[in-house]
Design a protein that fits this description.
This protein has 8 helices and no strands. It is mainly α. 35% of the residues are buried.
């Protein structure tokens, strides 16, 4: 008989924390979603720091949660295997921090919640797979062009309560994180 394997600890833990946040939001009639799992400009207090990172765990409902988590569970495990659990966790936390701070600075009247910035980080990160010294993966160019084009168009012309700017920030964090994580490996191969 085969046993279940917790094959991707960071990705699976993030998934289960997001699921718990969704359930807590339902049970608390949205209180936890507003006060713990959404980030917005507010006086700097202990809950602000919780929200600054916790907003990536919150979702507005099951459709929002499932839309993010399907891609998250498909893209996350290979990236965790490639970059390691600690590095991927650092990338997730950095993306949460950057997107949370930018949301508070640039969009003070709006709250941000959801893992889509993290998902877009993983999308751009995965497009760097197979990058070697002195090369630029064609997948990176294609994914970036399609993704950036769609998000820029949507940010400018579509009113849909979606944080397109934060998707762009997540993607940029993923590309930056991937390039930084790959840099030492590429330097080794060129020596």
């Amino acid at each position: 008989m085969k046993k279940l394997h917790y094959n991707s600890p960071v990705i699976l833990t993030f998934f289960f924390l997001s699921l718990a946040a969704l359930v807590l939001g339902e049970v608390s009639h949205g209180w936890t979603t507003r006060n713990l799992f959404s980030v917005y400009r507010s006086p700097v207090a202990p809950l602000f720091f919780v929200r600054l990172f916790g907003h990536v765990l919150g979702h507005s409902g099951y459709a929002h949660f499932s839309g993010n988590m399907v891609l998250f569970l498909v893209l996350g495990p290979p990236m965790e295997e490639k970059y390691g659990s600690q590095s991927l966790l650092a990338g997730i936390l950095l993306t949460a921090l950057v997107s949370g701070l930018l949301q508070c600075l640039l969009f003070p009247g709006c709250a941000l919640l959801g893992a889509s910035g993290i998902v877009f980080m993983l999308i751009l990160l995965s497009s760097l797979a197979g990058m070697k010294a002195g090369t630029i993966p064609l997948t990176l160019i294609l994914v970036s062009a399609i993704y950036l084009g769609q998000e820029i168009f949507s940010a400018l012309f579509v009113e849909d309560n979606v944080a397109h700017f934060m998707h762009l920030i997540g993607g940029l964090c993923g590309a930056g994180f991937g390039l930084l994580a790959l840099k030492p490996k590429m330097e080794k191969t060129t020596r």
